[in-house]
Amino acid sequence: MIGKLKGLIDSYGEDFVILDVGGVGYQVHCSTRTLQHLPSPGEAAVLSIETYVREDAIKLFGFRTDQEREWFRLLQTVQGVGAKVALAVLGTLAPADLANAIALRDKAAVSRTPGVGPKVAERIVTELKDKAPAFANVDPAVVHLAGAVDDQRAPRPVADAISALVNLGYGQPQAAAAIASASRSAGEGAETAQLIRLGLKELAK
């Protein structure tokens, strides 16, 4: 099983790179994001590798980091997500952005991926929600609030305040983050209007 390849870039294809390792050219499939960050032909590169062995073929998938490879594996645990869709998601969102999107239940960010519709995006953020916070760099309080809003467990004033900010044109993650901060400032029992006011101040910073 191949886990890493180090060699010289030989050439590029539409969704793959040929990596020359000691005179042997390995065809490695990569996300568009990974391909864009690799050097020019003739220069050295190192890729973390995921090896797929099928009855009729052996396929190599390459990643710039082990974390990106881990996300490739995680994504494919979701029903309806295969290697092609997983690569497309990683081509659209960097691992940190993907972790944040899942932690904040941001289905819209995931569905920006070509070929990923609302239903698949919903499954990704739902089925991986318990795995994303470990990778995310967002405030745990915001993750908790986003989950509470999504599951309709958030206090009414909080949910209404987030809804109001979304209606003003802010994205759900930004609105949730602002209201989470506003809730900390205002304390329990704050009214919707107060939360909206404080939330707008947060967003204006």
From TrEMBL:
Chain spans, region Domain III: 156-205
Chief localisation class: cytoplasm
Alphabetized GO MF terms: ATP binding; four-way junction DNA binding; four-way junction helicase activity
Signal peptide annotation: none
Sequence ranges assigned to domain Helix-hairpin-helix DNA-binding motif class in this UniProt record: 73-92, 108-127
Keywords tagged on the record: ATP-binding, Cytoplasm, DNA damage, DNA recombination, DNA repair, DNA-binding, Helicase, Hydrolase, Nucleotide-binding
Keyword match Transmembrane: no
Region annotation Domain I: where it falls in the sequence: 1-64
Quaternary context: Homotetramer. Forms an RuvA(8)-RuvB(12)-Holliday junction (HJ) complex. HJ DNA is sandwiched between 2 RuvA tetramers; dsDNA enters through RuvA and exits via RuvB. An RuvB hexamer assembles on each DNA strand where it exits the tetramer. Each RuvB hexamer is contacted by two RuvA subunits (via domain III) on 2 adjacent RuvB subunits; this complex drives branch migration. In the full resolvosome a probable DNA-RuvA(4)-RuvB(12)-RuvC(2) complex forms which resolves the HJ.
Family: Belongs to the RuvA family.
Role: The RuvA-RuvB-RuvC complex processes Holliday junction (HJ) DNA during genetic recombination and DNA repair, while the RuvA-RuvB complex plays an important role in the rescue of blocked DNA replication forks via replication fork reversal (RFR). RuvA specifically binds to HJ cruciform DNA, conferring on it an open structure. The RuvB hexamer acts as an ATP-dependent pump, pulling dsDNA into and through the RuvAB complex. HJ branch migration allows RuvC to scan DNA until it finds its consensus sequence, where it cleaves and resolves the cruciform DNA.
Protein name: Holliday junction branch migration complex subunit RuvA
Organism (species): Bradyrhizobium stylosanthis
Organism classification: Bacteria, Pseudomonadati, Pseudomonadota, Alphaproteobacteria, Hyphomicrobiales
Gene designation per UniProt: ruvA
